[in-house]
Amino acid sequence: MIKQQVFVTRKLNPEVIAMLEKVAEVEQWTKNAPIPRELLLEKIKHVDAVLTMLTERVDEEFLTSTKRLRIVANMAVGYDNIDLEACRRHEVIVTNTPDVLTESTADLAFALLMATGRRLTEANRFLLQGEWTAWSPTLMAGQNVYGSTIGIIGMGRIGEAVARRAKGFGMRILYHNRKRKPQAEQETGAQYADLAELLQASDYVVLLTPLTEDTRMLMGEKQFSLMKETAVFINVSRGGTVDESALYQALVDKKIWAAGLDVFAVEPVPMDNPLLQLPNVVALPHIGSATVQTRAEMARLAAANIVAVLSGRGPLTAV
């Protein structure tokens, strides 16, 4: 009998590998950089399961390179790196890691909001570069957070968690979503608004939608033109949801006040991306769920999905 095989595309905790080894032989790519595409296609030829990251593209080429693949376990809540229709055709199960990263990602979104609104990274650079020579009434003056209006675009689990944090800061909460969330409205006091109304009224616009054909380039020139000149834009969704050229122009023309970005259209973001040159942009390297505890739990859940499927049970968190 051929023993089941699992390939893991990045180095994970030994505890997670031990989970997988109970049902299969495991090989993992242990370098910090993503595995080269050609080598990945070679490695997956005879595996029953692959534990992937957002850096791996699971498409028709990927799927036709395998002989007996049963499950792709994506260590992320998003899955825009995976062609779901192709996986259906090949009868490959796709799982993700929802819930376990909700609170840590919401923490990051709100931290980015505060850092951008209060100019924290800019002020830090100012001090470390020796430019702080005297106190001034306007020195590094930012925007109020407490009592302001937040507009959340995408009221999923993370959006609701951000709303709970906003409630603690006495903020008026607006949200836009495909459908209304009565329970979230009751819990946080959030009010549903259409997109244009939300953009016009919000002091902070937080984008938290998944990347789909409907949300690709959701924020463009028209949308930024609706925002207040004192408004702050925060993106903790996917880079493809924003027209970066339009965002850059809105910032340069002072159509909006600042932007905090954890994601970019191209990642890792090239250093010649003009957004990185602006003092009113706080840029982070896609660390929404990056806490030690959360990343460990994401890996565990991805592995648990593989163990369940290879053991003849159903997946825990199928997409």
* N→C terminal distance: 30 Å
Strand content: 5-15%
* CATH fold naming of the largest domain: Rossmann fold
What's the shape?
Answer: elongated
Number of domains: 2
The class by helix and strand makeup works out as alpha/beta
Order the strands across the largest sheet as they lie in space. 8-7-6-9-10-11-12
Rounded mean pLDDT is: 96
Please tell me how large the radius of gyration is: 22 Å
What's the story with the biggest beta sheet?
7 strands, parallel
Q: Briefly, what CATH class of the largest domain?
A: Alpha Beta
Can you lay out the helices and strands and say which pair or pack?
Layout: E1 5-8, H1 14-21, E2 25-28, H2 37-43, E3 49-52, H3 60-64, E4 71-74, H4 84-89, E5 93-95, H5 102-117, H6 120-128, E6 149-153, H7 157-168, E7 172-176, H8 182-188, E8 191-192, H9 195-201, E9 204-207, H10 221-226, E10 232-235, H11 244-252, E11 258-261, E12 281-283, H12 292-310
Parallel strand pairs: 1-2, 1-3, 3-4, 4-5, 6-7, 6-9, 7-8, 9-10, 10-11, 11-12
What does this entry look like structurally?
This protein has 319 residues and is of the alpha/beta class. It has two domains: 113 residues, NAD(P)-binding Rossmann-like Domain (Rossmann fold), CATH 3.40.50; 182 residues, NAD(P)-binding Rossmann-like Domain (Rossmann fold). 35% of the residues lie in helices and 14% in strands. The strands form two sheets. The protein has a seven-stranded parallel β-sheet, with helices on both faces. A five-stranded parallel β-sheet has the order 2-1-3-4-5. Strand 1, helix 1 and strand 2 form a beta-alpha-beta unit. Helix 1 packs parallel to helix 12. It starts with a strand and ends in a 9-residue tail after the last helix. Belongs to the D-isomer specific 2-hydroxyacid dehydrogenase family. One of its GO terms (cellular component) is cytosol. Its EC number is 1.1.1.215.
